[in-house]
Amino acid sequence: MKQQIKVGICVAYDWYFLAQSIPLIYDSADIICLAIDKDRISWAGNPFSFDESGFRDLIKRLDPNKKINIYEDDFHLSHLSAIDNDTRQRNLLAQYMGPGGWHIQLDSDEYFLGFNKFASWLKKQYFNRSVNIRCQYIMLFKQLDSGFLVINNNDYFKLDGNPVATNDPAYEYARVNRWFNIYAPFYILHQSWARPEREITEKVYNWGHTDDFDKEQYLRFWLNLNKNNYHCAKNFNPLHPIKWPYLEYVPAKNVLELMNYYNDNPPFMPSKFRFGIQNSIWASRMRKVVAMIVQRS
After folding, report:
1. Cα dist from 94 to 8, 25, 71, 269, whole Å
2. What is the pTM of this model?
3. Which of 68, 72, 151, 166 matches a 20 to 30 Å C-alpha distance to 243?
4. Domain boundaries of the chain, sorted by first residue
5. CATH of domain 5-209+251-266
6. Do the Cβ atoms of 3 and 123 come closer than 8 Å?
7. What does the pLDDT look like over 198-209, one tens digit per residue?
8. Phi, psi (5° rounding) for residue 134?
């Protein structure tokens, strides 16, 4: 029996990004499930704006084959932190989609480039242990009048982003768990911070990491970035600065143009040999031993 491709998406105030993200995955997914808080309250416990009729109309338009399910539940327990509510929702979403197959979890603003090839690749994989599948994220940081500021990370294997798929959904911190990571040669374009100021403010006060950094100071930094000074931004990830070493400017009027740009000009992709070494559990154990020896010396 072929392994099903199950895609779960956490949905909130930015539901309208589904208009661009779902068409990329629709044909190759067996199940698509959208999980949304039943009271339209964020993980941080704040009500969020939501166009109910606009959301329903969009899903109806995007789902000619009736493969999209909407899962509504209480995802904002007051005794949990924002990140714990995030993790809980993802585990409940995985349970809702049922055991077996490949579980893929995305957010509304994550655009999977070449998803049909990724789904075909997944169906050819077999592992006798629990694993995560990671793909590289192309993180958009700010949209300017004539282009985007994009976060550049030179090393494919020093990923920013989350595990994308797993054969054993048991999430411990958002989409992260302790399973061994397998790197796959595919890219995801992430709208992330490339939004209007109002949405960025809503984002930083309601996402899972809202308590983990100085929101006001970071908002000022983001607001002041432009085409003339973006090159001055160095090591600026709000949680782990070195994850985002610098920015580059990519001309594009909108996200669709940006998708076309990266389809025609894909970022650097490591060789099959390099993927083989990185995905070897024995090589991983050796790297850990070497790191321990270096640390003690």
Report:
1. 7, 18, 11, 30
2. 0.91
3. 166
4. 5-209+251-266
5. 3.90.550
6. yes
7. 888 888 887 777
8. -115, 140
